């Protein structure tokens, strides 16, 4: 007779468990797969439903679609997902299309019905947790969205009055005050700028962010448009919400980005992404420029290992739009996963999709049939597997918090040493031979290139001579791979 009571007790116990409340150091060991919810997977599992990114319309991706495709993500070794903003948006078609991306919020207390029900969202979070994966939700705190010139404040929940907003002015992007107080958007979709300095507004945001964490089980937030809100407001918000938050400051200058880390867990590493993309997709790109940016991020930022390490996202042209050389893309994949920071791979990057500027970089992934061959899936899988194994094996100093050292190897190659991992990468391009000598190994040590599963040996002076053929090499000591399953060891 006590069984039902016991079960009730158990379910209460689990329901009342604090959600994982994942902090910065928990996230540092993760590898994130970034999803645009509308474009990743549909509830019906369709592989043919048409989707033309140019039209900027909803294509039917949902939270339950993601839940059904978690195998695809987890099999590549990702341990977290980042999904589009979840809240209700402006509805209907505008001159700039529909709000399929989630960056046109209108009601904080309702979910975007295009993405599913509250239960669908909870099911997705629970499915992630059951696999030991985290879920990060994108959130827009800076603005609400309004269709047309005349702002209908009464449509906004809960900021349903003009007094919750800054007065209207166009942003002068060369003036930080203007960036923080003026409005984004245009005459078709206006983005009224929320007055985040109002204590009542901040209080509402803190309560919302905390309650969404406990209600849905969210493990972290991705903060949109961080540069459009004053820094002290961010401190106030991040101090009172107990999960890791990673912010977007879209700038390639470490001087601009680094100061923001005093106010939140981490940011997207835009400086590194911009430079890596430039020097690895442009023939003759100067690798010294990348070494310099990486160094500046290490010395100017509080902790670059808490930054998001990414090469593509929903706002920038895909790498495949700059080059169709798979060797170049694989070199970038290596940097994407195994140097300083929390790796973030934008959905479709593993398929080498080639969409250029927004909205073309938001292709429906189902049209690739989630293929796992003849693309970058095997590469990302091998890279994540190595990183996850090193994190789990704890066989040496914590890999994720050890800073990388970058060295040039002539004009077209470089090495990145992080803990016991040595990346040897080149921007020569597919099939072009580049002889390099990598120094600093133990005498005669046996090394495995985990991408090609090839064994190599350093010479008696700890040097490794190797000819790159445009492809990257990822070296790890063979002795530390015993029992790992990596390269059948
Ligand atoms: C910067 O923008 C603010 C807000 O619009 C404005 O008051 C100020 O005059 C601007 N400063 C300069 C130097 O243009």
Automatic annotation (TrEMBL):
Top-rank taxon: Eukaryota
GO biological process: carbohydrate catabolic process
Protein residues bound to substrate: 104, 143, 222, 315, 362
UniProt EC number: 3.2.1.1
Enzyme active site: 224, 248
Gene Ontology MF, one: calcium ion binding
Catalytic activity: Endohydrolysis of (1->4)-alpha-D-glucosidic linkages in polysaccharides containing three or more (1->4)-alpha-linked D-glucose units
Cofactor annotation: Ca(2+)
Signal peptide (UniProt feature, chain positions): 1-21
Sequence similarity: Belongs to the glycosyl hydrolase 13 family.
Protein name as annotated: alpha-amylase
Organism encoding this protein: Favolaschia claudopus
């Amino acid at each position: 007779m006590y069984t039902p009571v016991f079960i009730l007790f158990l379910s209460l116990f689990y329901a009342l468990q604090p959600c994982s409340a994942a902090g910065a150091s928990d996230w540092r060991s993760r590898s994130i797969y970034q999803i645009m919810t509308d474009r990743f997977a549909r509830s019906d599992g369709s592989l043919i439903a048409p989707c033309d990114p140019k039209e900027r319309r909803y294509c039917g991706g949902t939270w339950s679609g993601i839940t059904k495709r978690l195998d695809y993500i987890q099999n590549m070794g990702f341990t977290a997902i980042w999904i589009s903003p979840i809240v209700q948006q402006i509805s209907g078609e505008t001159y700039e299309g529909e709000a399929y991306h989630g960056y046109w919020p209108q009601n904080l207390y309702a979910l975007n019905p295009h993405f599913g029900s509250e239960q669908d969202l909870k099911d997705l979070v629970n499915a992630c947790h059951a696999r030991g994966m985290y879920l990060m939700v994108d959130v827009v705190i800076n603005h609400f969205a309004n269709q047309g010139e005349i702002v209908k404040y009464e449509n906004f929940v809960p900021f349903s009055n003009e007094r919750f907003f800054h007065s209207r002015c166009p942003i002068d992007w060369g003036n930080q005050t203007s960036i923080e107080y003026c409005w984004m958007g245009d005459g078709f979709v206006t983005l009224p700028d929320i007055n985040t300095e109002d204590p009542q507004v901040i209080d509402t945001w803190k309560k919302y962010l905390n309650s969404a964490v406990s209600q849905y089980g969210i493990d972290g937030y991705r903060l949109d448009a961080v540069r459009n809100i004053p820094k002290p407001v961010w401190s106030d918000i991040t101090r009172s919400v107990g999960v890791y938050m990673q912010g977007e400051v879209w700038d390639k200058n470490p001087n601009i980005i680094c100061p923001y880390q005093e106010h939140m867990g981490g940011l997207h590493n835009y400086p590194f992404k911009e430079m890596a993309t430039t020097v690895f997709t442009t023939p003759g790109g100067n690798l010294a420029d990348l070494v310099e940016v990486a160094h500046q991020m290490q010395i100017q930022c509080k902790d670059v290992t808490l930054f998001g390490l990414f090469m593509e996202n929903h706002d920038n042209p895909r790498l495949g739009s700059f080059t169709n050389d798979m060797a170049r893309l694989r070199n970038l994949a290596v940097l994407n996963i195994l140097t300083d920071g929390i790796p973030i791979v934008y959905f479709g990057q593993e398929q080498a999709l080639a969409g250029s500027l927004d909205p073309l970089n938001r292709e429906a992934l189902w049209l690739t049939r989630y293929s796992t061959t003849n693309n970058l899936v095997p590469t990302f899988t091998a890279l994540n597997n190595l990183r996850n194994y090193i994190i789990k094996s704890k066989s040496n100093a914590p890999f994720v918090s050890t800073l990388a050292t970058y060295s040039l190897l002539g004009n077209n190659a470089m090495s990145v040493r992080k803990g016991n991992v040595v990346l040897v990468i080149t921007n020569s391009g597919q099939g072009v031979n580049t002889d390099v000598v990598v120094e600093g190994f133990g005498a005669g040590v046996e090394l495995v290139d985990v991408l090609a599963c090839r064994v190599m040996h350093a010479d008696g002076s700890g040097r490794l001579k190797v000819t790159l053929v445009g492809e990257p090499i990822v070296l790890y000591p063979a002795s530390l791979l015993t029992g790992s399953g990596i390269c059948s060891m």
